[in-house]
Design a protein that fits this description.
By secondary structure, this protein is α/β, with parallel strands linked by helices. It has one domain: Rossmann fold, CATH 3.40.50.300. It is built from 7 helices and 12 strands. The strands form 2 sheets. Strands 6-7-8-3-9-10-11-12 form an 8-stranded mixed β-sheet, with helices on both faces. A 4-stranded antiparallel β-sheet has the order 2-1-4-5. It is globular, with a radius of gyration of 19 Å.
């Protein structure tokens, strides 16, 4: 589904580039649930934005659903994103001038979904997230946790093939956070590919694979199979992979 080849992104500082991402090579199969972890400044959110086509690297290739993303015209790339990718932002990114109902409905407008279908789909999301009573409120009238719920509902409403989430439970209480992760798990079982950035070890364990970034590089790849972890420690200098069964 996804293949990143030698992706690098940097900012020029004087005569030296400051790398945000450095030589990222990553394949994601359809149906995976991947958690990306790492310290602040390791490039987690930048990598997620590159995958979500919200940011471009300085060099490298990106193949999404057998299409070379960087050889596509901007309009084609935008349509690919709107059709197949849902994004849950850490900072919500709700539209202040729209109500909760209208924010959730927005992705459907880009897909020309008929009015009666939109109403039914939005009503289902409002009910699922128990925010029916908030549907006519504006983002400024909601708590941070409520805004995040609206953001997640908006990302899910168009039934994307790929769901990208940047700290999806960061502003939710523990019960709400657990419910969201259980929902993600169910969506993944239904075939939705999920990539989340998280600082939470507990949330990361919901994934089928955990990727650790350090200084813009993939440091570790941990696959979780049948309650047994397979650690794949990567040496970027010579592409040596060491498998440890723990």
């Amino acid at each position: 589904m996804i293949e990143l080849k030698h992706i690098s992104k940097w900012i020029n500082q004087g005569s030296k580039p400051n790398f945000i991402l450095k030589d990222i090579n990553l394949k994601v199969a359809e149906g995976e649930f991947i958690s990306i972890m790492g310290p602040s400044g390791s490039g987690k959110s930048t990598l997620l934005n590159v995958i979500g086509m919200l940011d471009n690297p300085n060099e490298g290739e990106y193949v999404f659903m057998d299409q070379d993303v960087y050889k596509m015209k901007e309009k084609q790339r935008s349509q690919l994103y709107k059709t197949h990718i849902g994004f849950v932002f850490q900072a919500y990114h709700l539209i202040d001038e729209l109500t909760v109902y209208e924010n959730i409905e927005t992705p459907l407008l880009y897909q020309d979904v008929k009015l009666f279908e939109r109403k039914a789909m939005v009503a289902d999301m409002l009910d699922k997230f128990q925010i029916v009573g908030k549907k006519d409120l504006f983002p400024a009238q909601l708590s941070g946790g409520q805004q995040q719920l609206v953001g997640i509902a908006r990302a899910l409403i168009a039934k994307p093939k790929l769901l990208l989430a940047d700290e999806p439970t960061g502003n939710l209480n523990s019960k709400q956070g657990e419910e969201i992760m259980e929902l993600f798990t169910q969506l993944n079982k239904e075939g939705v590919t999920i990539i989340q950035v998280t600082h939470s070890e507990k949330n990361a364990e919901y994934g089928t694979r955990i990727i650790h970034l350090l200084d813009g590089r993939i440091e570790r790849n941990k696959e979780q199979r049948n309650e047994k972890h397979i650690e794949r420690i990567i040496c970027p200098c010579n592409n040596i992979y060491i498998l440890l069964f723990i």
